[in-house]
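Sanity check

After download, print the first record. It should look like this:
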Amino acid sequence: MDERPSLTYRSAGVDVSAGESFAEKIAGALRSTHLAHPGRILGEGSGFAGMFRLGASYRDPVLVSGADGVGTKLKLVQHLGAHAGIGVDLVAMCVNDVITSGAAPLFFLDYIASGKLEPEVLASVVDGIAQGCLDAGCALLGGETAEMPDFYEAGVYDLAGFAVGAVEREEILEASNVREGDVLIGLLSSGIHSNGYSLVRRVFDDPDEWAGDEIYPGLDTSLKEALLAPTRIYASAANAIRGQKGVHAIAHVTGGGLPGNVNRILPPGLQAVFHPGSWPEPDIFGLIEKRGPVRRDEMFGTFNMGIGLVVAADSGAVGEVMDALRKSGEAPCRAGEVRARKEGAAVVIEGVEP
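Expected structure tokens:
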């Protein structure tokens, strides 16, 4: 008779009961995001998948999807034990992509993988995801939590998010709409958002400084607060200008900065020119640039530098568009314009040499 102790899933490092307890703990957060969508979320469905009803509110709907993570900002979050805001980042990174097509966010799904399920930590993350969904006006429809002890170290978790929205086919925003003479309207960022943190962590490489409590000259907050400020969600702004005449395209400014993202909304033969100084640049960028040191062109090619979303609008409609954005709570600025491209890069940052 084999007298070795019988193996169990728990002894292998996976606690199924903890997963069930966690699901119960976050149920309230999920339900809170459903209240804004009465009649659209169909009960429990099959128990394995969520169901969302489009209904008759669309004539010719096109579904728009996006998936993303939060990059190595997550490593900093876990080091500092500050988990509350990273869920907002996750929603923002996905939803802000979806709204660039003109779509209204409908629902969101998340994936959380960890070495060992820590219910309090991950519940904090999901609370942030739920808050992000409320800010975006979408439902947290479901997700997956995986405990993978042989893949992740204890205390380490990873995140991925998936957003789905819808837009009338005739209202889709895309690069082909952009014209010479269009004004580039910038919507302000909250800081670094969720891109460039591999470089950020190199700039602040002293372990003692990762406590984040220091107040650096030029910063109004602690370093920790500046680095962990959640990504802004621009769904309300996009809702305010959806279908408005003269709105041609939208770019979400993530990794690669203005040059790496605005070029996606430029047809061949056109050039975007931005004027630094026409918008306020968050102090954290000046600190990174000086402390690195990091060249100015590298800063613009890595970070959003204060603009998280760019709206390309017809010059004749820009006043109405900016008024609508202000009413949604934004402080829009005329950050640049679209010109004929005769030479040079597709996206030019005035005064910044490549």
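If your output differs, re-run the checksum step. Summary of this record's structure: The chain has a mean pLDDT of 90.
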